[in-house]
Amino acid sequence: MVGAGHAETQLEAAALVAPRAATGPVFAPSEEARFVEAFAPYTDPAAPLDQTGPANAATITPAEPEATPLGSGNASYYGRRFNGRRTASGEAFDMTALTAAHRSLPFGTRVRVTYPRTGRSVIVRINDRGPYSHDRLIDLSRAAAEEIGLIAQGHGTVELAVLDS
């Protein structure tokens, strides 16, 4: 009996080492095939894009640049009549760009203009001199005035802050 038990153990061990023959050829997928299969959901143009991101992903909000308040004053805008004319900085005025005219700020200065009446803000780049009306602090391009909702009134009191960057 001892011999019979030993033979059964050897048969079981042999089965573990040499698995039974499969009914057909067994192919291991190539590295490329596994890659294609793994990334198919991301490369299939018909597959809907998952734009939610991981459940634990933090929403990254760009940091607001530091700003130095300049105070408040009247703002107006200029547009169609001046479009294409040269500004004091030498560039052509583009009423669709987010730019502005200020009497003394250096060209290229970025200024956040906030219109308290609507609560909206826009960041403009100073590229011109003016306004030439004594009761105005800044002249905005038409696009900047639209951003903050100043178009209907034509002018209004705004708050200015120079962006430090």
User: Per DSSP, what share of the residues sits in E-state strands of 2 or more residues?
Assistant: 25-35%
Helix segment tally: 3
For the termini, the CA-CA separation is 90 Å
Q: How many beta-strand segments?
A: 6
Taking strands numbered 1, 2, ... along the chain, how are they ordered across the largest sheet? 1-5-2-4-3-6
Helicity, as a percent range: 10-25%
CATH architecture of the domain at 83-159: Beta Barrel
Largest sheet: 6 strands, mixed, barrel
Whole-number average pLDDT? 80
CATH topology of the domain at 83-159: Barwin-like endoglucanases
**Which structural class fits the helix and strand makeup?**
alpha/beta
Order of helices and strands: HHEEEEEHE
| Low-confidence segments | none
- Rg over C-alpha atoms, rounded to the nearest angstrom: 35 Å
Based on Cα principal axes, name the global outline.
elongated
- CATH class categorisation of the domain at 83-159: Mainly Beta
Q: Let me know the CATH homologous superfamily of the domain at 83-159.
A: RlpA-like domain
In brief, what are we looking at here?
Lytic transglycosylase with a strong preference for naked glycan strands that lack stem peptides. With 165 residues, the protein is α/β, with parallel strands linked by helices.
What do these coordinates show?
- With 165 residues, the protein is an alpha/beta fold.
- It has a domain at 83-159: Barwin-like endoglucanases (Beta Barrel), CATH 2.40.40.10.
- Helices cover 22% and strands 26% of the residues.
- It is built from 3 helices and 6 strands.
- β3 and β4 form a beta hairpin.
- The longest helix has 16 residues, at 2-17.
- It is elongated.
- The termini are far apart.
- The model has no long low-confidence stretch (mean pLDDT 80).
- GO terms for molecular function: lytic endotransglycosylase activity.
- Residues 54-69 have a biased composition (Low complexity).
- Belongs to the RlpA family.
- Residues 72-159 form the RlpA-like protein double-psi beta-barrel domain.
